[in-house]
Amino acid sequence: MDKGNSASDAPAGTRVGALFLDAQALYRELLRGVQLICKPDTRLVGITSGGAWLAERLQQDLQLPGKAGVISSAMHRDDFSRRGLTNTAQTQLPFEVNGAHILVLDDVLYTGRTLRAVINELFDYGRPASVQLAVLVDRGGRELPVQADFAAARVALAPHQSLALARSDDGVFSFEVKER
């Protein structure tokens, strides 16, 4: 992670207060961490949309057979009545969930509510042997007892800010910080 003093230190990063987040560098750290926790038969599943982008790229960079899965939290959100269905990809799990070792990937872990919904969605498809979580950024602020098995970085943001992964047309990752 680049903590340089100016944006010119690493042109592809995003400044969050005094912290400089380089999404590409964090992806390389995530890749290293995923290599350490993956078993030979681990199946990658990315949470729409940032986690799905990470899973897709990791599947390719790790030269794993088949396709990574994509999972949506939309149907199991505890705030579904307020949010409704979002314009994101639907769940696609191109493998048998029963007995599988699954690594769920997400861009940012915050309250834990998305992960709770994703686990409910995953169990609608079967009973995996194990479920692990790897994230690009853990920003703290948990409302549920959820913890990542691997986080490429841990940062603190104000509650009124959100952090999301963005991907350019040529596949380069960056972060977007928004005020709520």
Short key terms for the protein model shown above:
180 residues; alpha/beta; Rossmann fold; 5-stranded parallel sheet; two-stranded antiparallel ribbon; 4 helices; globular; disordered N terminus
Q: What does the model show?
A:
- By secondary structure, this protein is of the alpha/beta class.
- The chain has a single domain (7-179), classed as Rossmann fold, CATH 3.40.50.
- Helices cover 24% and strands 29% of the residues.
- The protein is built from 4 helices and 9 strands; from the N terminus they run E-E-H-E-H-E-H-E-H-E-E-E-E.
- It has helices at residues 23-37, 50-61, 80-83, 113-124, and strands spanning 14-16, 19-21, 42-47, 69-71, 101-109, 130-138, 150-154, 161-167, 173-179.
- The strands form 3 sheets. The chain has a 5-stranded parallel beta sheet.
- Helix 2 links the parallel strand 3 and strand 4.
- The longest helix is centred in the first third of the chain and has 15 residues, at 23-37.
- The radius of gyration is 16 Å and the shape is globular.
- Residues 1-11 have low confidence and may be disordered.
Short structural summary:
By secondary structure, this protein is α/β, with parallel strands linked by helices. It has 4 helices and 9 strands. The chain has helices at 23-37, 50-61, 80-83, 113-124, and strands at residues 14-16, 19-21, 42-47, 69-71, 101-109, 130-138, 150-154, 161-167, 173-179.
The description of the largest β-sheet is: 5 strands, parallel
Mean pLDDT: 87
How many individual domains? 1
Estimated share of beta-strand residues: 25-35%
* Oligomeric assembly: single chain
Separate helix tally: 4
- The run of helices and strands is EEHEHEHEHEEEE
**What characteristic shape results from the CA principal axes?**
globular
Structural category is: alpha/beta
What fold name stands as the CATH topology?
Answer: Rossmann fold
CATH architecture: 3-Layer(aba) Sandwich
The CATH first-level class comes to Alpha Beta
Please tell me how large the radius of gyration is. 16 Å
Strand order of the largest sheet: 4-3-5-6-7
Helix content: 10-25%
Q: Compute the separation of the termini in Å.
A: 25 Å
Care to count the β-strands?
A: 9
Name the poorly predicted regions. 1-11
